[in-house]
Amino acid sequence: MRKGWVIAVAAMAAVSGCGDGGGSTSAPSPTASHRLTVTSPAYADAGTIPRRYTCEGENVSPPLALAGVPAHTASLALLLQDPDAPRGTFTHWLAWDIDPHTAHLTAGEHPTGAAEGRNGFGRTGYGGPCPPRGDRPHPYVLTVYATDRRPDLAATATPDDLLQALSGHTLATGTLTGWYGR
Q: Which CATH number, 3.40.309.10, 3.90.280.10, 3.30.70.100, 3.40.50.300, labels domain 34-180?
């Protein structure tokens, strides 16, 4: 596994080997130097994602914990992507309008009241890691954004649409990177 990975977006691989599944190339910069903390009781940052949260398991989102959300946050957004997918960054989950008071999400929970966009599998909601068989483990980067407004996006929003809506409105970000190979 690579150490010291620094990237701004999260990524997950497609069932058929990842591909042009809603990639993005840039992320909004926080307007403040504030960082929020994203953790999971299921795996440590830079750790291995348990099979339960992948295409080979129950394919449910992992449990998450958030801390350090700025006081004036209007909304949270999240983006989970695999930057090492064979055909470019692959999106596994994008959601916005998440209540800024959200401190925990249980395994498989859809954020209450949030909008979820279409992932690289062509479905709304979470789609677990599923890198091509035989590939080295891929990094799956989950980025959470604290924003000063609720993004006005259509249900068909892409990762680029989300990042553009957050540009100039991001108060803080935090990431959790997990690795998975099969």
A: 3.90.280.10
